[in-house]
Amino acid sequence: MAHISYRQALHDTLRSELQRDENVLLMGEEIGRFEGSYKITAGMLDEFGPKRVRDTPIAEEGFTGAAVGAAMLGLRPVVEIMTINFSLLALDQIMNHAAKIYGMFGGQCSVPMVIRTPGGGGQQLAATHSQNVELFYAFTPGLKVVAPSSPADAKALLLASIRDDDPVLFLENLALYNTKGEVPDTDEPGEIGRAAVTRTGSDITLVGYSRMAHVALQVAERLAADEGIEAEVVDLRSLRPLDRQTVVDSVKKTNCAVVLEDDWLTYGIGAELAASISDGAFDWLDAPVRRVAMAEVPLPYAKPLESAALPSADDVVTVIHQTLDAVGRRSDRVGAR
Amino acid sequence: MATTSRTRKRPESQQATGARRTRPKGRSGTDADTGAELLGHYRQMLLVRRFEERTAQAYTEAKIGGYCHLNLGEEATVVGLMAAVTERDYLFTNYRDHGYALVRGMDPGRVMAELYGRSDGVSRGWGGSMHLFDTEVRQLGGYGIVGGQLPLAAGAGLAISYRGGDEVVLCQMGDGTTNIGAFHESLNLAALWDLPVVFVVVNNQLGMGTTVEMASAEPELSKRAGAYRMESARVDGNDVLAVREAATKAVERARTEQKPYLLETVSGRLRGHSVVDPATYRDPAEVEEVRSQDPVTALHDHLVGTEVADADTLAELDAEIGGIVKAAVEFAENSPSPDPTSLFDHTYATPVPNDSRRLPADPLFPLDPTAGA
Predict the structure, then answer these.
(1) A69-83, A156-170, B275-289, B302-316: segment of lowest average pLDDT
(2) CA torsion, points B32, B37, B39, B42, in degrees to nearest 10?
(3) Which residues of A touch B348 (CB under 8 A)?
(4) Among chain B residues, CA nearest to A111
(5) Span A295-312, mean pLDDT?
(6) Among B32, B99, B205, B259, which has the minimal tally of Cβ within 10 Å of its Cβ?
(7) In whole angstroms, what is the distance from residue B366 CA to residue B373 CA?
(8) Domains in chain A: boundaries
(9) What residue stretches are annotated with the Dehydrogenase E1 component domain (chain B) (predicted)?
(10) Arithmetic mean of pLDDT, A235-254
């Protein structure tokens, strides 16, 4: 075990995969000479050379599509798209090509590639640089979408993504890059399509992914310490496939749930989770499933406006309180102390 | 060979600068090419012609669904291009892909079965007319999104270059594609990275109904190559030998020098954009001119005129091709439809847990049989 950052886990994993498999190559804007906008690929151009660590022009559609074509011939490109906002420029190649080629041609040709890209607002980057559009990819059959929240999962799921024969969108998050955690030394790939219960509890289920799974854990610890509320936290880890069973199993235990998401509420991933919980645990629910999501505006630049729009830990606590109050459980708990 | 000479009216501004399309001069004709080769090309062109005519019929009989775009009028281009690549080379095309599949060597029965949506189709009934794919002949897809195949072709070129191979990628597109961003991004990448990709613009002078002049500020599309320091050529797409010669040069350059190339072939479209398009927007005189330059008729007359073959021999050939097309239709008719139980067979190449296999009326979770009791 090593105690390292999410960034370091990604860096080390990319490096070891480049060493392991000659078919793996990195492509993206500023990943080589500039060493990556977020320095995930620092030092790699020097170590592996420009053939395998390939700086691209600013042409998301072109280089993402080129990665798809190279994958069709058996290479395993790992594309870095500087932020998920810019993936919109490659949407045709991701949704119409990477996601379709295996099925549309009757399973004759797979597309073993990874698109690494960070989401995450909250850095005063304003409206076009602060979106969380992973929903578009999670919506699309043929793609796999993973969104690790811890350094250990970042390593395990990146290994799984690179070794998988399908196109995987690997969602990172700007706010997570510097977070640290224990990471196993062994190269054991994680399982795409499985959620994890990262904290057990009996009072309420919190569901999140990426940064919000991290926030959920922090909130759960705070509530346990301050109020004796024991929240169970489900980290989705994989957005497609979606592990509904793990979520529903938790809700059957706690009888209520709050879903956390960094993106807009209407039509969002939280809506899918709420509907799934309704389908799978209707008779177990003591309160409506609540969603904590970003305000539905283009994210503003000014800090007070940005802070008001983004879901915070305090927002999550407020909604947990409201949910527990609705079922009369908080007063019991508080009274019991 | 001598197809009908063609010069089309061009905008005055272009004529003033001499940017007029003319047939290339001085290329090889029957002197340098054996009659047998030409006859072989004619046979393939005839296969495309008769297959497409029969396809149009099957479409109007509702045997074929979806969109259906034919290569009628582009037979010389298709055959000339396919004569320039080897079986080890890769091909990417747009949605007007039937002719390429046939000449590249896909079985006509399996191509027709794909159009019919049957399980023996080259894409197992998952792709249809626009998405013919066969790894055996390295035709890596017809693509329905205009420009979608260009980045893919560049990427295939990257894989070849990465491994130090000597295969070439031929990437076909229509004239309208030259205005989409993927065209610029892909040609730039290919030139920047020295990728062995021959981009071919099949200029049939019409998008759907939009002419090249309406859509392209520079209607001589091969000139776009200059922006990427890429070599290029523009040839008469109705002249199978001219196309073959130009494409061979482009392919060999890509193979030996690892350099991309932009080739433009200029021909016409004998029918509407797709089978259902009556093309009422076209000037009858323009349609008549395209018909008068019909590459199949022209080659037929040339073969007879130069005594490579007499009319009776060519009629026998036509009958033989008719038999192949008839057999293809019979094969398609008799091929079973894909079984609905195979619906989830091609979602992922690597199986993963929680992969959705839900049909529209299926519940997400098992229904409780006691509910509502």
Answers:
(1) B275-289
(2) -100
(3) 102, 142, 144, 165-166
(4) B349
(5) 95
(6) B32
(7) 16
(8) 2-183, 196-336
(9) 44-340
(10) 98
Give the nearest chain B residue to A59 (CA atoms). Answer: B185
Q: Is residue B354 part of a domain?
A: no
For CA atoms B360, B361, B362, B364, give the dihedral sign: positive
Q: Answer whether A166 sits within 8 Å of B162, measured CB to CB.
A: no
- As to burial, measured by CB atoms within 10 angstroms (0-12 exposed, 13-18 middle, 19+ buried), residue B117 is buried
Helix, coil or strand: residue A238: strand
Examine residue B250 and state whether it is found in any structural domain, yes or no. Answer: yes
Residue A299 has pLDDT above 50, yes or no: yes
Give domain status of residue B145, yes or no. yes
List, in sequence order, every beta strand (DSSP E) within B220-260. 231-236
In B143-202, the residues whose Cβ lies within 8 Å of chain A are 143, 145, 147-148, 150-160, 162, 181-182, 185-186, 188-189, 192
Domain with B205, as residue range(s), is 63-342
Residues in CB range of A82: below 8 A, 6 or more apart: A28, A29, A30, A37, A117
Enzyme catalytic residues of A: 60, 129
Of all residues in chain A, the percent with pLDDT exceeding 90 is 95
CATH number assigned to the domain with residue range A2-183, chosen from the 4 options 3.40.1650.10, 3.40.1390.20, 3.40.50.970, 3.30.70.100: 3.40.50.970
pLDDT, residue B271, reads 87
- Who's near B303: CB < 8 A, 6+ residues apart? B35, B38, B39, B42, B309, B314
- Predicted confidence (pLDDT) at residue A320 exceeds the cutoff of 70: yes
Task: Flag whether residue A65 sits within 8 Å of chain B, measured between CB atoms.
Answer: yes
Q: Write down the mean pLDDT value for chain A.
A: 96
Q: What sign for the dihedral angle of Cα B321, B325, B331, B335?
A: positive
**Residue ranges, chain B, pLDDT below 70:** 1-33, 371-373
- Min Cα separation A206/chain B (Å): 20
- Is B346 in Cβ contact with A65 (below 8 Å)? no
In a domain, B306, yes or no: yes
A186-199 per-position pLDDT tens digit: 999 999 999 999 99
Residues of A in contact with B141 (CB under 8 A): 101, 105
How many CB pairs lie under 8 A apart between chains A and B?
180
The reply to whether B344 touches chain A by the CB within 8 Å rule is no
| CATH number belonging to domain A196-336 | 3.40.50.920
- Chain B residue numbers touching A69 (CB-CB < 8 A): 92, 151-159
CATH number (domain holding residue B112):
3.40.50.970
Q: What is the pLDDT of residues A195-231, one digit of tens each?
A: 999 999 999 999 999 999 999 999 999 999 999 999 9
Task: Please tell me the total count of domains within chain B.
Answer: 1
